[in-house]
Amino acid sequence: xxxxxxxxxxxxxxxxxxxxxxxxxxxxxxxxxxxxxxxxxxxxxxxxxxxxxxxxxxxxxxxxxxxxxxxxxxxxxxxxxxxxxxxxxxxxxxxxxxxxxxxxxxxxxxxxxxxxxxxxxxxxxxxxxxxxxxxxxxxxxxxxxxxxxxxxxxxxxxxxxxxxxxxxxxxxxxxxxxxxxxxxxxxxxxxxxxxxxxxxxxxxxxxxxxxxxxxxxxxxxxxxxxxxxxxxxxxxxxxxxxxxxxxxxxxxxxxxxxxxxxxxxxxxxxxxxxxxxxxxxxxxxxxxxxxxxxxxxxxxxxxxxxxxxxxxxxxxxxxxxxxxxxxxxxxxxxxxxxxxxxxxxxxxxxxxxxxxx
Length: 357
Ligand code: GGG
Known about the structure:
The chain is of the alpha/beta class. It has helices spanning about 15-35, 45-55, 60-65, 85-95, 160-180, 195-210, 220-230, 240-255, 295-310, 310-325, 340-355, and strands at about 1-10, 35-40, 70-75, 100-110, 125-130, 140-145, 155, 185-190, 215-220, 235-240, 265, 275-280. It folds into two domains: about 1-105 and about 270-355, Isopropylmalate Dehydrogenase (3-Layer(aba) Sandwich), CATH 3.40.718.10; about 115-255, Isopropylmalate Dehydrogenase (3-Layer(aba) Sandwich). Strand 11 (about 265) and strand 12 form a beta hairpin. Bound molecules: glycylglycylglycine. The site of glycylglycylglycine (GGG) has 9 residues, from strand 12.
């Protein structure tokens, strides 16, 4: 029996509704597998916790999470705590403290889901975005002086290190090789951003030379965003900086039907620290408590966790079950259906049991 300790952070808003759904599916997978069990340790760290304690997590939060095999997270951010406070108080310390420098987000139109792009089917939208997750535009370097005067000055420094840039671009090429993708596309903006982005391009082409069997191209982020809409079939792996990757993956989830489905893995590829699995979506305050949040982004993130822990067949089983459920029309309102979170979750669980027998 293989046992895994999972640190669970439901976080805010619909995170608290979809994380239990994801756990339920992990347990069903464990049950049908027979040799796989999860033990969960749940942490209430969130904006609500911040309102009581004045911080997003305790000072020894990372130490507590560090013993786990993986972190299963819902959503972070809620009105009442400024977004930069919640992000920098919880998600960013986890991503950086545990060197989760590769954020992997599949953009895949699942059969049974309709893309908002006319005439596009599952064969047209099937690529992976690799987002640099530890540096770039998400930096705490900069400052503000002469606040609230007409002379106010604000600076924000982007941080690109050779080590960080090389490792994420190499990761993208390695992933393309592993997943049999033909091409890696680099998101850049080296016409307007004249130090960091020409450096990014230089490193990209240097690493691309190490992979002669994989096509390489670079595209300015504005044109690339447009190509996601007009030519999604042209992409295999897309690699981008922290901010570009963040923006592209909301767009990617949208063209694949709904941000409610988008899944994400914050990986420490060396497995020295736990990796963190969370849906692309946030806390969605507008639908909290209605029971209609789409659990599939969380469930798919759980599948990515299974793959990372060495259970690729279990990942495939979950995806197959999700596709069967979508194909049968069991969908939450974001996908045009009427099903509730609990109904979709129960249908995926049933399908996993059926497929496993
Ligand atoms: N589950 C994703 C989530 O809660 N995201 C909140 C957020 O603000 N994310 C920004 C980011 O991923 O950089």
